[in-house]
Every structure is written in C-alpha cells, then in structure tokens.
Write a structure and sequence with these properties.
By secondary structure, the chain is of the alpha/beta class. The protein has ten helices and 15 strands. Helix content is about 40%, strand content about 25%. A six-stranded mixed sheet has the order 11-10-12-15-13-14, sandwiched between helices. Strands 5-1-2-9-8 form a five-stranded mixed sheet. Strand 6 and strand 7 form a beta hairpin.
Length: about 425
C-alpha cells in the first residue's frame, strides 16, 4: 500500500494553520492584558509646582499631564490646608516645598494611603480658598491645577474646617496597613512581634544633608530584621507598614493592640537641630511622662509631629482611658518595656556604637499602648555624617539586626523555655 503523501501534507498544513491561529490569539490576549495592566499602573504626573503672590493673595500652581479634581479641606492648630488627590507621581524635587511665599509658609507632598496622594500646606494664618480651576494644556504649556488663596479671619477658617471635614476622604490607613493581618491568629504560642518602621508616604521623616530619607532607611532595616527574626522559627513577626505608605501614630499603636503583640519595636533614624556633630550613635527609648534629657524631649517632639506633618486631624482621635485596671496594665507594661530596653542596650554595646546614656525616655505617642511592651530604637542620627555612612552600610545593618535579634531571644528566653518544658511533659 502506497503512503498517502498528500494527506500527510494536508495534515501538516492544517496543524500549522491551527498553531498560527493559537499563537495569534495568545499574542492578542497578552497585548490586551499588558495594555490593561499598563493602563492601571499609569498615574497622573505632577511635573512642576510653584507659589506666587503675597500676604493678601497667594496662588498655588501644579503642572500636570492629566486633569485631576482635588478635595480641599482645612485643619487648625496649626493652620493647614489639605489637598487630597488620586494617587499621582510627583516628578518634582523632594525639597521644592521647603520655601513658601505669601500665605503659604511651606508645603509637602507624597503618598498618603493606597490610591491617594496628599499635599499639605502650612499657612502663615487663616485663609479662604477664593477659587480653584484647571487649565488644559495649550501648545507647549502643560495643563495646570490652580488654587487662589486670600487672607481670612480665624472665625471664617474655623467654619471652613468644619464644613470641609465631611468632604475630606476618610483616612484609609487601615487598608494601607495590611488589615488582613489584623485578624490573623497567632501561630501556636509563638511570641508575636510588631516592627514599626517610622514615617512613610507624605511623611519622609528626617533627611540628611546628602538627601538620605529616614523613611527609606528604617523600612529597609525593618525588613532585614523581620527576616532574621523569622529565620529563627521562634516568632511571628508583623510590620506596621511594608511599603512607602503613611500610617498615623494612633494607627500604629492600634495595630500592636489589635494583634495582641508581645513586643513592639519602633525604628527611626532622626536628625537633631542642636549638637549635630555630637549626637551620634544608637539609642533605645522607652515611654515616660517626663523626658530624661533635652535631646530625648527634642526627638519625642519631632516624632510626635508626624500626624501634623501628614495633615491628620489628631483632635478626632480617641481620648486617654483612665480606667484603674488599664492604668495597672500600663505600669506592668512599662516595666517589661524597660527590661527589654536594658537587654537591648546590653546586646548593642558589643555590636555598634551607642550614644552616651543609651537608654533614655520621653513621651513618644507611638509607645503608648497600655498592653504591649514597646521601645523606640534610634538606629543613628542622619544629622551626623558618620552615622549616615553606617546607616547605609550593609555590614553595619547586619550587625545591628543581629544584635536586636539576640536581645529579642534574651527577652523571650524564659517564656520559650517554659513552653518547651510544657511540650515535653
């Protein structure tokens, strides 16, 4: 029987045609998907910004590539104006708002929460928003968002604050702080540790002379420390933020409380206004009603301003609880906090340079959880050039993270030993 050559070729041609059709289909599908993803990720871009005018009338201008509609609100004590925008990319220098003009003393910008950017203006006094409008792009001129401010009275600004409060988007800090983890149950009986990288988003924290941002330094270090603690297999570790997102001070405390954390470590790398060359080395802070020294008072004042920097209405936060049982729990928690701080200082001594009297205290708002032992670790001071070199050194960060991990082991060793004894019985 002769082989059916023609039939074989026909089959090959049909197979090739089918293959080509499938390839074309998948190519089209990939292109459509890629285009959809690209469309989702493209954000409006701010390409320029400036302030013009005087103490009677001031104009604020943003150059943009796409029209956006801001939600404008006000906050008093101190006087601030808030512009909430959909998430945008700020293609402008980080320090562009450090010098203001007219009614705007200075201003700052950044990511405030998932899908939302924010501009916060510090005002020289009460103002009213005379008009806001958007100019489309013309010829070689970019599109512009324009806002005109005029001088106002304290009474009129207070009324504006009240009326704008309802218009201001609800702060989505819970969504931005990985809220799915807040309902997670502890894995067995492992101690649960919350690491709190300070600042984030619109709140950059300290900035060195070379432009190093505190919010970036502490996030990288917290991620390294988390990996080391988890590698031991002894702890469950969570972070208050895992990206460049702003989390208010009150929300940070709530996260530790909601997770029923066994230890809360807030991580910072501040700057100081006085004695920049002298303030150097790592410091461990615990909570106290009165600062242990002037430097501690200054650092606490700076850290407690984080919500003001980001335009958070701190007056709407929950008040202090005065229940006697809560007060007793707070006293016990402070004792555990001090014990861990001393353990940590002991470990750090052999690993990194410490400031004189490395265990200090002040009224840090982020340490005020009544039921979670809490400390704030200053890795170093970005205002000191020697500290800055260490803070960006991988070798130094490895030593620092290793020392903190050993201190955590020491703090929980009695508890872990009891659990092992119980398990073996």
């Amino acid at each position: 029987m002769k082989p059916q050559v023609g039939g074989v070729f026909d089959g090959i041609r049909r197979f090739a045609a089918l293959t080509a059709m499938l390839l074309a289909f998948f190519t089209l599908a990939f292109t459509v998907h890629s285009g959809a993803v690209l469309a989702e990720t493209v954000k409006p871009v701010v390409t320029g910004a400036r302030v013009a005018g005087d103490e009677d009338r001031t104009r604020f201008v943003l150059d943009m590539d796409t029209q956006v509609t801001p939600v404008i609100s006000g906050l008093a004590n101190p006087y601030r104006l808030i512009l909430d925008l959909p998430e945008v990319s700020f293609s402008i220098p980080q320090d562009v708002g450090e010098t203001g003009r007219g009614l705007i003393s200075d201003w700052r910008f950044g990511l405030f929460a998932l899908g939302k950017s924010r501009i916060v203006m510090d005002l020289s006094g009460p103002v009213s928003v005379d008009k806001t409008f958007f100019l489309p792009a013309v010829d070689d001129q970019p599109a512009r968002l324009v806002m005109d401010l005029v001088r106002s009275s304290p009474q009129d600004f207070a009324a504006f604050v009240e009326t704008s409060r309802s218009a201001r988007p609800v702060d989505s800090e819970k969504a931005a702080s990985k809220s799915d983890k807040l309902t997670a149950q502890k894995n067995g009986h492992k101690p649960l540790i919350v690491l709190d990288p300070g600042h984030g988003g619109i709140d950059s924290g300290a900035t060195s002379a070379a432009g190093t941002l505190e919010k970036a330094i502490v996030l990288e270090f917290a991620s390294l420390l988390k990996a080391k603690l988890e590698a031991s297999g002894l702890y469950d570790v969570h972070m208050t933020r895992e990206d460049d997102t702003f989390i208010s001070l009150g929300r940070r405390v709530e996260i530790g409380h909601e997770l029923a954390a066994d230890l809360f470590i807030s991580i910072h790398a501040d700057s100081v206004r006085r004695g920049q060359k002298l303030a150097r080395g790592s410091t461990v802070y615990t909570l106290s009603d009165k600062a242990s020294d002037q430097l501690s008072a200054e650092i606490a004042e700076t850290e407690n301003m984080s919500d003001v920097v980001a335009g958070v209405d701190i007056e709407t936060g929950p008040g202090e609880v005065t229940d006697i049982l809560i007060d007793l729990a707070r006293r016990e928690t402070r004792s555990f906090s001090v014990y861990f701080a001393r353990t940590l200082v002991s470990e750090l001594k052999s690993a990194v340079r410490l400031i004189n009297n490395p265990h200090r205290s002040a009224g840090f708002r982020v340490l005020k959880a009544h039921d979670v032992p809490s400390v704030l670790v200053e890795l170093g001071y970005l205002s000191n050039e020697h500290d800055e070199k260490l803070l960006i050194s991988d070798e130094w960060r490895e030593r620092m993270a290793g020392a903190i991990t050993e201190a955590v082991h020491g703090f929980f060793r009695p508890r872990l030993a009891r659990q092992q004894e119980t398990a073996s019985q």
